[in-house]
Amino acid sequence: MSVKTASAPGDEHKAAPPFEDILFPRNPIHEHAGRLARFLTYLRYEDVPSDVLHTAKLVTLDTIGCIAAGTRTPLGEKILAAYGDGPQQNVCSVAGTALRLAPSLAAKVNGWLSDVLDYEDTAAGHPSATVVPAALAMTEHLNATPKRFLTGLVAGYEAGLRLHDATRASPEAYRRFASYHAWHGVAAGAAAMVVSGGSEEQFRSAIGHAAANTNIPLWYVQYGRPAHALKANYGQMALGGVDAALCARQNIVGPFAMLSDPERGFAAIIGSDRFDPTQLSAKLNEVWRLRETCFKGYPACYALHSTIQAVTTIVKTYKIRPDQIDKILIGCCRKVCDWFSIKALPSDLDGQFSVEYAAAMASFSVQAGRDWYSPSLMANANVSNLMRRIDVEVDPFAEEVYWKNNVITSSVTIFTKDGQSLYAKVDRPPGHFRLPFDESDIENKFLHNLCGTMLEARGAEIIERTMNMDRSISLNDLCGVLRTPRS
Fold first, then answer.
1. Which end of the chain is more exposed for a tag (fewer CB within 10 A), N or C?
2. What phi and psi, each to the nearest 5 degrees, are found at residue 427?
């Protein structure tokens, strides 16, 4: 038996408040998300400054190198084995392998591989780990032009980093939730949709789909040891971004309004306690976010790079050998102390997040690359002994500038056995956008990443095709070079 609640006299004549249109909500809080959607819809290759396009090519080259290097790691081999028997229809490439997969799966595997060594560029996370794989898969799937690929890559950085800024949490929430990673899925969706093209309605649906497809924020250092292989789950977010564009192309409506819903929206879902919608459209067409990306000179979390550089500076300046070192003292922000002080390494992934291991690699002057995590080095008794003599402490100045200026400062003192005390302080390592690498540095890193992979002999050709891609009408030639023949 149904029960009807009694109404007060006159209530039956009151209209229920209308729901917002899910794609074109009227509440002013959604205005800035709408501006971002319109910007993405109408963004064209010709609108992007030439230096931004050039950086997009360098990011593509750098990411391809990271993917290729990732294929020759133990984790990379397991990833490829997991997807090696997958469907072979409607296929897209996995760089440096003969594996070909459906678009979303190809984006997932390329995205996962790009982060295996934590060597790809960084900008409040690793946008290239989702943006490049998503744009590449959609370009190959649709046989879109290289100019669309580059525009999609730029768009992914524009959308993703603005969403990061809009949902940036307070220090207290930041410590409880990994909310700073969740925007990568929307970055991938924006990239894939710009490659695809479509109406503003489709773009709004794609952004909504991508936001809804975002995985729960995932800690990558504090669930226990050994470190889990998903890391920040970029592979799954790249997959979600491509799926978002594929669905939007079929006019499957996505929940665009969730992006900026003040009570139930994206910021609240990912655990952020702050939402500033104005950041979603801040200085569009004026500030190009790809200019802020930082290329990495070391295969380790970027939070450790200032420490690595400080140790490297002391070792090179004073020609210090590892056997001369008595102990090392590292002063840094609390984040590094709490999350990245790991003296015993159960896996190679733990090494990427250990400030002691990174400092030891710099002390031994080991060339940066995947060899940092070779079994012989990780089991080396001299490395382990040095790690035990490295102390890490909070530097109040480093803690202050981290939260105030988003700068990860590190000060290092090396105490030698003959009584010397050698000091260096680094605010920004080389490769930071304010201290950029030369183009040759990025090319040399790329070629070194290809060493020992199936792409090693093709390095010069890949550089040439990548850096001149917009002179071609198709990416087929580049994708063909990135694929290896089946044995």
1. N
2. -90, -45
d(CA 77, CA 74): 5
Nearest to 232 by CA among 243, 216, 245: 216
**pLDDT tens readout for residues 50-82:** 999 999 999 999 999 999 999 999 999 999 988
Token digits for 439? 């183009």
Q: Which of 252, 143, 121, 129 is nearest to 191 (CA)?
A: 129
For residues 311, 315, 316 and 320, what is the CA-based torsion angle, rounded to 10 degrees? 180
Amino acid at 391: D
What DSSP element (H or E) covers 423? Answer: strand 421-426
Local structure of 204: helix, strand or coil: helix
Residue with more model confidence, 217 or 182: 182
- Structure tokens given for 186: 């929307």
Q: Which DSSP category does 370 fall into?
A: G
Strands 325-332 and 92-93: unpaired
Give the residues across from 93 on adjacent strands. 100
DSSP assignment of 122-138 equals BSSS-THHHHHHHHHHH
Q: Are strands 410-416 and 325-332 parallel, antiparallel or unpaired?
A: antiparallel
Distance, CA of 474 to CA of 176 (rounded, Å): 45
What is the rounded distance in angstroms from the CA atom of residue 487 to the CA atom of residue 228? 31
Amino acid identity, position 486: R
Give the Cα-Cα-Cα angle 109, 110, 115 (nearest 5 degrees): 100
Amino acid present at 231: K
Length of the chain: 487
With a threshold of 0.85, does the pTM exceed it?
Answer: yes
Per-residue burial over 456-472, b = 16 or more CB atoms within 10 Å of its CB, e = otherwise: eebbeebbebbbebbee
Any bridge partners for residue 413, and if so which?
A: 329, 423
Q: Residue 401: what pLDDT?
A: 94
The structure tokens listed for 210 are 């991508």
Positive or negative torsion for Cα 195, 205, 32, 175: negative
Start-to-end CA distance of the chain, whole Å, equals 70
Separation between Cα atoms, residue 118 and residue 386, nearest integer Å? 23
